[in-house]
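Hello again,

I reread your note about wanting to compare the complex against the isolated chains. To keep things tidy I'm splitting this into two emails, and this first one only covers the full assembly. Below are the input lines as submitted, including protein chains and any nucleic acid or small-molecule components. They are followed by the predicted structure of everything together. The single-chain runs will come separately.
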Amino acid sequence: MAVQRTLSIIKPDAVAKNVIGKIYTRFENAGLKIVEAKMAQLTQAEAEGFYAVHKERPFFADLVKFMVSGPVMIQALEGENAVQVNRDLMGATNPKEAAAGTIRADFAESIDANAVHGSDSAENAAIEIAYFFGK
Ligand code: RTP
Ligand code: MG
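Full-complex prediction:
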């Protein structure tokens, strides 16, 4: 498997909990390098654009409202098989179903406030990295 990049967001709940460093340590211990990073307060339009794929879903309004509720930490991670390595670190979308030792099991509150985002494919990773960091 080749070196890849993936887009990660530490969501408002985890930023508020002061666990950015703990989550970064998990990326680093898994061999993922932080190659771009910025803290941001997303606007409504930025959050809607980022999650546009979900705009017809019943949870879309709540998801956007949550993502603009406080600052987020956005990073591009680079490493072997980075997309899947990050998804494995994150755990299941619903923290109640997330495996022990995953970021969501340890830091997330609920399916809405679930601590982190990670790209779900290499193709989406490229789109999402360009969305926040440009080419
Ligand atoms: P993410 O995109 O944030 O990394 O999360 P994911 O791939 O694990 O989950 P996805 O299906 O892409 O959903 C995006 C976010 O929407 C919220 N969600 N709520 N109430 C629900 O049934 C529901 N389903 C999804 C979650 O906060 C999820 O992270
Ligand atoms: Mg997703």
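For quick reference: The chain is about 40% helix and 20% strand.

B.
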